[in-house]
Amino acid sequence: MFGEKGLKNTLSLRFLRWIIPLLTLSFLLFGATGFFATRDSLVRFSRQSSSLLTDQTKVALVNWIQDQIYLAQTIAADPKIVRAVLNPTDEQARVEAHSYLQQLHDRYKHYENMPVAIRLPPGKTYQMNVNGEQRVIKNGTFLLDTVQGSTLGKCGPDFSYIKSIFEGAPYYVSEVYPSILRGNPLFVVSAPVKHDGQVIGVALFGVRMDYFTDLFIDPAKVGETGYLMMFDETGKVIAHPDKKLILNESESKRVGKITARILQGTDPSFFDTYEGVEKLYVVSRLAKGSFGQTAPATAGSSFMRHDWYIVSGQPVSEIVKTSRTQAYLYFLFAVLLSALVAVVLYKHTQRTITRPLADLTRAAAEIVRSGDLTQKIDVHSQDEIGELSRTFNEMVDKLRDMATSLRQTLTRLREAVGDLDTANSQQRETITRQAAALQETQVTAQEIKQTSNMAAQKAEAVLKVTSEADEIGRSGETSIEQSLNWLTGIRSEAEEISTKIGELGTRARQIGNITQSVRDLADQSNMLALNAAIEAVRSGEHGKGFGVVAREIRNLADQSIQATHRVSDVLDGTTDAISAAIAMSEKGSQKIDNGLTQMRSSGENLRRLSGIVRDNSAAVRQIAAAVSQQDAGIAQIFGAVTELSKIVDDTIKRLESTDQAAEVVKSVTDQVSEIIKTYRV
């Protein structure tokens, strides 16, 4: 049994074991929510500040490039430059223009070279002596430079910064590429040299990209370790703190994933991992049209070769470092607050729950131990524990009333069990007599059922034989019908054969007539040949040839007469054979008629026999149906008797169960009576 200490261990402490983790978890969730809220706020602030930095850097880059464009256009419009391009063979003009360009180059150290290209008609060239070396100046090549003439005669009209100006562009900004002289990254800014509105040359200079990088990109810091970098639209790195990546295709593969995200242009900021560190990247795009266009560009062309991208990168861990410190403070506060709340809840639980429950436990234990239903619990509160105490008092009162009523009910139950036992004994005797009578009835029904089964089996056998006879009769009728049809067909065919043979005899007689005509003609031919021979003899020498012909005709006539005799003999034999065939055909027809008559008589007899069999089959079926019905009726009687016997058996078993239940009720009544005696009411 649980005492007060047991209740404390099983309720208060168990309550605390649940509430402390729940409170701690709640505060930790609150701290985690604060951490992520602060983290999102810091990331958003970092994104905004990075975006502001990249935009300001882009503005500085735009202004710087515009200064380069303005300087290129100013150089192109200078009279010294125009005069030197108009008169490329004028040594004085070229010296003055070169001096002007050299002064500018010496002043602005971030230019790689400040050359001027000339525009010439197709096929026209100039020869120029440069430091003792002959140079050929062609269309689109450099007429002037500021690197001791090392680039004179070089370049050409197919270079983008020359070609665009020749096509009418007011300026052009090329892609960033490695310098031929120093290897550092640079880009070219060019402007047209004009005279009377016609482009006669191009003023250009190579601007060192690392100058802008040193001024604006490298010094810029994003947070503590973040930095700026630049890419062009082809994915090349044109500015980066890691100098090995700049314009190095093999090394720039390290940032290929980031470059692909930048060039997609779907999001101006994104998270990605570089060299194992997750970073926030913010992109600002310098588009080709950022400087405006003062003249229409040709289809598909632009005054700037590539878009440029200024990108900031900052480690995420650095961004959220402040929020992580706040999260640690949140977690510490959660643990301390959970401990304080746990102590307060423990004291409150002990006073309002544990002690009242201990009183209830003692009262219930006393009732269980001694059966004392006079126990009462003092109620001092209106909460659930007080309601439980009141309900416990009401339950004890109900148990006390129940015990009194149960004693009275047990007395009446004993009397009812005695009466039930007497009634069961009388009913068992009656049912036993019924069971014996049903047993005799069941034996008689079984004998009748066996006799009926034998009759049904005999009837089925007779029915089967009758059905087979009926089938054989039907089959015989069908066979006779088929034989009649077959003999009728044979008779028709015999008649047709006889007709054909008669026609053949007629044809043979006609051939005999023709043969006789041929014989007559042969006789006449013989007579004519004889007469001809006589006339030939009379004619002497002149008739010898005619006599030879006459002899041949007689020979032929004799052969024809012999042939007609042979044909006549053959025709006579054929005529006799045809006559015999006709006679045989007529006899066969008569025999077929006799067979048809006998077959029809047999078929009629077989049909009468089949009818008798069918009548017998119907009668046997009626007998079999009657026997089957009788068998079914006997089976139903037998089933009813069997079912009634089972019912009687079940009734006997139920009576036995009733006796057992009565004994159990009597035993339980005694036990309950003993238990009721243990309670004090």
Cα-atom Rg, whole angstroms?
Answer: 68 Å
Report the major sheet: 6 strands, antiparallel
Helix/strand order: HHHEEEEHEEEEHEEHHEEEHHHH
CATH domain class of the domain at 439-677: Mainly Alpha
Shape: flat
The share of residues in extended strands comes to 5-15%
What is the strand tally? 13
Quaternary organisation of the protein chains? single chain
Compute the separation of the termini in Å: 24 Å
Q: Percent range for helical residues?
A: 55-70%
By CATH, the superfamily of the domain at 439-677 comes out as: Methyl-accepting chemotaxis protein
Mean pLDDT rating: 78
Annotated CATH architecture of the domain at 439-677: Orthogonal Bundle
Low-confidence stretches: 1-8, 294-300
Protein structure class: alpha+beta
CATH topology of the domain at 439-677: the name is Helix Hairpins
Q: Helix tally?
A: 11
Task: Characterize the structure shown.
With 681 residues, the protein is of the alpha+beta class. The chain has eleven helices and 13 strands. The strands form three sheets. Strands 1, 4, 5, 6, 7 and 8 form a six-stranded antiparallel beta sheet that branches. A five-stranded antiparallel beta sheet has the order 10-9-13-12-11. A two-stranded antiparallel ribbon has the order 2-3. A hairpin with a 4-residue loop joins strand 9 and strand 10. The longest helix has 156 residues. The protein is flat, with a radius of gyration of 68 Å.
